[in-house]
Amino acid sequence: MKQAAHILLVDDDASLLKLLGMRLESHGFRVTTAASGREALERVEASRPDLVLSDLRMDEMDGLALFQELQRRLPGLPVIILTAHGSIPDAVSATRQGVFSFLTKPVNRDELFAAIDEALAQTPRGGEGEQGWRAEIITRSPEMERILEQAQMVAASDVSVLVTGASGSGKELLASAIHKASPRADKPFVAINCGALPEQLLESELFGHAKGAFTGAVSQHQGLFQAADGGTLFLDEIGDMPLPLQVKLLRALQERQVRPLGSTVSMPIDVRIISATHRDLSRAMADGDFREDLYYRLNVVNLKLPALKERAEDVPLLAKHLVAKVASRHKAFVKGFSPEALNLLASCAWPGNVRQLVNVVEQCVALSSAPIIPEALVSQALAAEENGLPTFNDARAGFERSYLIKVLKITEGNVTQAARIAGRNRTDFYKLLGRHDLEPSRFKPGAESS
């Protein structure tokens, strides 16, 4: 059975607030009330509604200011504004900014419910309704819908989930959605990138440390396992975790307790683990870079996100959503892309996936001087993106590959000599070559002509 839509009603007139609230509840809606814009924002933080119905004239923060702040925090949340001071300029201003409807008090009952029904019909149900857990994932792709169905099923249990997919495909967003759909939703969701920190710092961040555990540890530090207690810990780029830490992580998951660095006392933990990687962990296990026992503990369920180029039907949808989100923060007059600009966006390969699309949209909004972004501006942003800086991980991988090719050329494919130049043993050097799909025999004299 479909849950009743949740409406946040905002008015600084207590009697009208009570009267309209009773009318909405009698119509079957679930109603939360707020006597000011500030109070409304607090209510939204606690529970996202499906629709906001707000008075226009209120002290401190009026209805339009509330709408603008809601758009910044929750783009796409429909807002209907009511006013006893109805005027054409107010209505035009409100609707231009994206307010769904503008009604004059005293409100006609039929007009009010017609506007509410229309707003709810055109907007995916969010908040604590049926789709609240996935409200941030914008898609119409059948493949993404299949993954989201699996994610919702898996969320109900406490099994570990491994999310795989290319960088920028939305792995953390899916992990957060699983958390929101789970029984742990009211507890913390804590994320850490395991490839972004050196080993000792990563160990301290995960497990915590006692005062004096190492130089600079001037006080006790609570680790992320404890910070996420009762909730979900998201381990991004788990494939980049150093082997010694993999051992400690496995022990923590098996024993369901952690021992901070420098401490002799273990502490119980209750966390759900979701991990993610863009690396091929099967290959990493074969190379000895990733523990097989840890892999099977983390990979109880595997959800593989498609690249953006594999869900091209989502590009216009995402672009429209992102432009509204970005414009609400920076340039409210920007309303969207021209049809030609959307076609150009949809036809791109998007090697950087959704993260790259976000960058392009942000550039377009920043440079736009008109409400509709033209095709030429999209072309310019795409060209700038191609010449932009890579991520740290991409830059490091690019340097590694270039360096390996160089030493293989110098040594004419002699792995022993190349490993000596690189300062690595043969085993480690072979692992590096495998990671970058480099075959030493290709660099031997005469290999090109053979």
From TrEMBL:
Keyword entries, A-Z: ATP-binding, DNA-binding, Nucleotide-binding, Phosphoprotein, Transcription, Transcription regulation
Gene3D superfamilies: 1.10.8.60, 3.40.50.2300, Homeodomain-like, P-loop containing nucleotide triphosphate hydrolases
Family matches, as CDD domains: AAA (cd00009)
Sigma-54 factor interaction domain segment(s): 137-366
In-chain residues carrying the UniProt-annotated modification 4-aspartylphosphate: 55
Keyword presence, Phosphoprotein: yes
Annotated ranges, domain Response regulatory: 6-120
NCBIfam families tied to this protein: PRK15115.1 (NF011695)
The protein, known as: Two-component system response regulator GlrR
Organism field: Halomonas salifodinae
